[in-house]
Amino acid sequence: MNPVTYLRAADADQALHHAGDGARIIAGGTNLLDLMKEDVMRPAALVDINGLALDGVEQTGNGGLLLGATGRNADTAYHPLVREQYPLLTAAILAGASPQIRNMASNGGNLLQRTRCHYFYDVATPCNKRQPGSGCAAIGGLTRQHAILGASGHCIAVHPSDMCVALAALEAVVHVRSARGPRQIAFADFHRLPEDQPHIDTTLAEDELITHIELPPAAQFAGHSSYLKLRDRASYAFALVSVGAMLDLDHNGKVRAARIALGGVAHKPWRVPAAEQLLVGHAPTADSFAHVASTLLFGALGQGQNDFKIALARRAVVRALELAAAGTYDNTGSERDGSD
Ligand code: SF4
């Protein structure tokens, strides 16, 4: 048994005082506690931030929203302002996990959840992410779930979040605090590719605390967005491939702007802004979507068992854009606790 000290922080200063030095921040704990039970992570202390006033949803002066870090995923998905202005985020959150987990998981924790690579959780196997320098059991092993973009010879894991795919497309900004003061991190810079340091998932420092996630105004996309998740089971499964797509169409039906992010394919949500630009000024047709999909998937490389993901991702991008062009579909249903 590994002894763990538990501290309940009364405010952000107290949480920051105890952060770092082997201590881990905990909010929902839906991933961290699993990792501790599997002996993958062994924090010396848990700093509980559920008592901090960070669970709200506020409007910003420029018409965007500020999501508190300890707000629950379900509360965020069903918040009226999120549903109305950011339907892609609602759809992505509701495509993830189970209702019970979404009720518990926090917004900040969703960004920090770790890969579901089987070998990362199996402490009997080598894994550079769990133990730097030990090797990667996935390379040459079971790779059905693994990356086709942005992988390295040190790690081929994918980021598991659905919510983060939407946040990437929405160009969210992560607000963090440390003893050095506050700073903001563009979402595209928050998660890392593995390169030769796969044990470092994000650009968040050990002594930093996520306080909020800012959503810039995105009303122009609200009428034409879709989140398409393809997985091995209909619910409670991570994406083989997912696509968050948003279109801003002018009065002639031509594309004024497009945002597309992929999940399940890389160590971070995958975006290629140059591919999105290919749609601007054109009618939203299957041919133009196919061209965008090829550009988005440029350089994709399978590991054998996951080669199918390349064709699957191409088709998923086209389908997600077709759905977005047809109009946003409300997947919230009438029941708050409906199955995903
Ligand atoms: Fe570990 Fe990454 Fe290799 Fe999985 S893919 S075994 S997480 S190093």
Radius of gyration: 20 Å
What is the CATH homology-level superfamily of the domain at 221-330?
Answer: CO dehydrogenase flavoprotein, C-terminal domain
Report the CATH C-level class of the domain at 221-330.
Answer: Alpha Beta
Q: Strand order of the main beta sheet, please?
A: 4-5-8-6-7
Low-pLDDT runs of 5+ residues are 334-340
Give the DSSP E fraction (strand runs of 2 or more residues).
15-25%
What structural category do the secondary elements indicate? alpha+beta
Shape: globular
- First-residue to last-residue Cα separation: 36 Å
CATH T-level topology of the domain at 221-330? Enolase-like, domain 1
- CATH-scheme architecture of the domain at 221-330: 2-Layer Sandwich
Q: What is the count of β-strands?
A: 11
Helix content: 25-40%
What report would you give on this structure?
The chain is of the alpha+beta class and 340 residues long. Among the domains are: 5-50, 2-Layer Sandwich (Uridine Diphospho-n-acetylenolpyruvylglucosamine Reductase, domain 2), CATH 3.30.43.10; 221-330, 2-Layer Sandwich (Enolase-like, domain 1), CATH 3.30.390.50. 28% of the residues lie in helices and 18% in strands. It is built from 13 helices and eleven strands. Helix 5 (87-94) runs antiparallel to helix 9 and helix 12 crosses helix 13. The longest helix has 19 residues, at 308-326. The two termini are 36 Å apart. Residues 334-340 have low confidence and may be disordered. It binds iron/sulfur cluster.
